[in-house]
Design goal:
The structure is a homodimer of 341-residue chains. With 341 residues, the first copy, chain A, is of the alpha/beta class. The first copy, chain A, is built from 16 helices and ten strands. In chain A, strands 5-2-1-6-7-8-9-10 form an eight-stranded mixed β-sheet, sandwiched between helices. In chain A, strand 1, helix 1 and strand 2 form a beta-alpha-beta unit. Chains A and B meet through strand 9, helix 7, strand 10, helix 9 and helix 10 of A and strand 9, helix 7, strand 10, helix 9 and helix 10 of B.
């Protein structure tokens, strides 16, 4: 495809990184590489051509180069994909700073916020690689397993650099993966963060067995809060109603395997937050970000009733039924005011 | 509640009308009446205090007056609720024009468009009752069975008359039913019409077993089309992202019993449109409105790829897999342009 990258390194062997590497091969790219942190696991991936830890059940095409040697893979690359979990983002890219090919753009797939700094992944990357490498983000309703299975999906590349956006579109698009562009990088990236608290609340609805009316209302009103907070944090309100905001929220609410939804469901069923957290290998992102979002909300003077109640349930022992009653009996509101652009 | 109506007649004994009459009693209203077209069935409803035809499994409180005598019920009423199916709307209200208490507002619950005129229910009512009675609409993710079961739900009253809106909020609100107001009557009412085609498309996704990524993307991109067409038809773009648009679309997509979703699912599985239509007692609204929406779309010069493909599948024998391929391989787009207010 005209404008498409010719040699791409996917940095990180997680589910989404591995699925995207496969997708790029399917999209016609001949030179795709997958970087894996652990040399032993890299050897396993290379020999067995499967990723049983993070994407079980799918093969890795023979044309994909696999190695733990970052410099060797990055040599000659004209696009880098950062598929590193947010918690390892800074250390991984810092370690390879010297080997980065100058001027080559990075597409970040990471979701969430860095634990201590509360920076977005693209902000962490910018701190690490400086202005030398342009950073954009790719985000949307993209469950890795479904994409690996060849099921259709759509996503958004967020960057104000229209040429870079078109290059990512040209590189990643194929008959099963459709990429839109959006200049609002912050908005695209924030959608994937803010949706987690609402998905957790939707899980609580499920746990309380409140039905489909309640869940649909929760998601609709949750969108108002996501757009309001996201705008205060630097995104464009409208962006949150696109694939990276609404789309990602919907897939998280629908998916039975979503950690945020599951966490919420158990809260709704009456389990204690401590017990749930102790039983899960990885803490749900929505549970982890409820506190910083709550702080941001108050700092910006925003009224976000659903986020407020989720915070109370997670951190102040508020019972889910009480939270529901509080949400249902607030003063009567004008919806148009909440939706106005 | 201050500002609440004191005597309400629900006109129509369908599922939603009956559930709303119960809800009004629960909200503390003492004088609630339910009008039923068929005198024999009215007698059954009154004696047995159940509605096995339209809301099986729920009782009808003894305080609700039930009759087929419209004039007797309407005497002294200060709010009328039109819970009549759109196909009977004109005939029912025309028949009772003489008995209408002057100046008493009508809250319309009907969804869809009148078959020949393509008028919205509130427009039909305005034609029948003239300017004498103000008409507003109540719409949102409101599956009647769930509301009858006392599960929480939210809805929107659409009218530019703020005083009437507050009156409906005061009358219908309780701890399990939350009513927002929105001055955009046309937008609130159109949401419930336009969502049907997208819900049908979501059903096709289910039938093709395309997964959650695809369905989330379809709903997100479907919202762009609903907002675009809805604006051309006289609504405010933002309204479609509220409870009466997005909210109603979500509940329709989630509900296994939705006719539109089910119709679509069977199309996706490969059944012929003729066979599906022949096997269903009531045609799915989305199938019925695909053609007029398609005409509107062309008349207004709008590009609505999902609506276009649904039309082709229903009326031109287009195979679902072909439609999917066409949607996935369109030219690359700027999402921000589609979402801009």
């Amino acid at each position: 495809v005209s404008g498409a990258a010719r040699q791409v390194v996917v940095v990180g062997d997680g589910g989404w990184g591995t699925a995207l590497a496969r997708l790029l091969v399917g999209a016609g790219l001949e030179r795709v590489a997958l970087w894996c942190h652990d040399p032993d696991y890299a050897e396993h991936l290379d020999r067995r051509r499967t990723n049983p830890r993070y994407l079980p059940g799918f093969d890795i095409p023979p044309s994909i180069r696999i190695s733990a040697d970052f410099a060797a893979l990055a040599d000659g690359a004209d696009l880098l994909v950062s598929a590193v979990p947010t918690s390892y983002l800074r250390s991984v890219w810092s370690a390879h700073r010297a080997a980065l090919p100058p001027g080559v753009p990075i597409v970040s797939l990471s979701k969430g916020l860095e634990a201590d700094t509360l920076l977005r992944p693209s902000q962490v990357l910018a701190e690490v690689v400086g202005d030398a490498l342009p950073v954009c983000v790719l985000s949307g309703p993209n469950i890795a397993r479904e994409i690996a299975a060849g099921l259709p999906a759509a996503s958004v590349v967020g960057t104000p650099d229209a040429e870079l956006a078109r290059r990512v579109q040209a590189t990643c698009s194929c008959a099963t993966f459709r990429v839109y562009r959006n200049p609002d990088l912050a908005g695209v990236e924030l959608g994937g963060v803010l949706k987690n608290v609402v998905a957790l609340a939707a899980g609580i609805c499920d746990g309380l067995e409140l039905g489909d009316n309640a869940k649909a209302a929760l998601v609709s009103r949750g969108m108002v809060e996501i757009a309001r907070l996201g705008e205060a944090l630097g995104g464009q309100r409208a962006t949150f109603y696109g694939l990276s905001g609404l789309g990602d929220l919907l897939v998280t609410c629908m998916s039975p395997s979503s950690r945020n939804r599951t966490f919420g469901e158990r809260v709704g069923r009456g389990e204690s937050v401590e017990d749930i957290a102790a039983s899960m290998a990885q803490v749900a992102e929505g549970a982890r970000t409820a506190r910083p979002l709550h702080e941001w909300m108050h700092r910006h003077g925003l009224v976000l009733p659903i986020c407020e109640e989720v915070y109370r349930m997670l951190h102040e022992g508020r019972a889910p039924r009480e939270a529901l009653h509080a949400l249902m009996t607030r003063a009567h509101k004008d919806e148009a005011r909440d939706l106005a652009p």
